[in-house]
Amino acid sequence: MKIYPFKLTISRIYSHLNAIRSLPIRDLMDQPIIISKNETPSKIISTLIETDSYDIFIELSGKVAALTIRDLIGIKDIKSTKPSLVGKIIPELNKDSVVGEAARIMSHYRMRTLPVADKGDIVGQVSAKRIVELIRKHLVESKLQIIASNIMTSEPIVIDGHKTLSAARSIMKRRRIDHLPVTDNGRLVGIITSSDIMKVMLPSERIGKKSVGIDNTEDRLSIEVSGLANDDIVTANVEESLQVVCDRMISARSTYCIIKAWDEIQGIITYRDIVALLGEKLEEDIPMYIVGLPDEPIDAELAKSKFTNVTRFLKKIHPDIEQARCHIKLRSVQGARKRYEIDVHILSVHGDISYTNIGWDLAKLFDEMTDSLKKKVSHKHKKTL
Known about the structure:
The chain is of the alpha+beta class. The protein is built from 14 helices and 20 strands.
């Protein structure tokens, strides 16, 4: 059963956070985590564990490549694969960059940390954690009440505790997520993250109460999820505020919070959901928000135009549409080609409509989205008549 308390309009949330977007990132900088391009994935994993980091940077001939935990768990040969073949080139910030720009790039590249460069050298980094702390401080000072269900990702993907770690890794890689609630007969019993999977990939890693003294990653990944899942779960109720969620995540040093109603999972909030509140608003009669616009102006305008046009059309069919949200994520880069994922949510009083697709042609992705959403909205409209 879905339970959603009264929703504060996204437009109000957006306007209240305007002051944060224009803040310079220089006051949020931490020491960067940098590695040599010749380091092995095993050494990189050890560094990430020691520094409690999700992203790590590699300096490559005037450019910066980034590796994330989700990139690493996809590696088959952890001992010999070159990190430069797995990482992706990402834009750099400078000390005069603002929080809104950092949030946009984080959402676009699905990063939790971005490098700050000065004259070609990495001098610092800005993390999603610091932005979440900044938003939390603003919520306290402004006394703005944002209910958790306003921003949570509804009906998150879960995994049964009897499934294997290999199955969990496969879901994370395919769905581009880092958190999997673990269930037993539909009841929430734990959480497993991409960081947990990464740790298993190191030789002779201790898993739960079992010491696994084998070097075969695939054998380790055959262990049941319940053997590794953390049962100390960070949770909040749907009626609780985003400030409470931020407090619990920061206090527990967690990157997620499961949103519940009684014992039922309603959604999940991660750093990405909170940082996405700083996304770009499109000026239309219907509140429309688009996160992760491409850096190329032509592609960015194409995405905004197509998303605006389809939402206007859908509004004619289904007048009770209240909001439209679109996340554009860069999945991979091959030379001049870029592979995108678009994730769209249309919110109405009769329920939400979602659409996700992945491909190399951004224009084609939006055209396919238009056809699919028209069919979905028309079907819902017929059912309400």
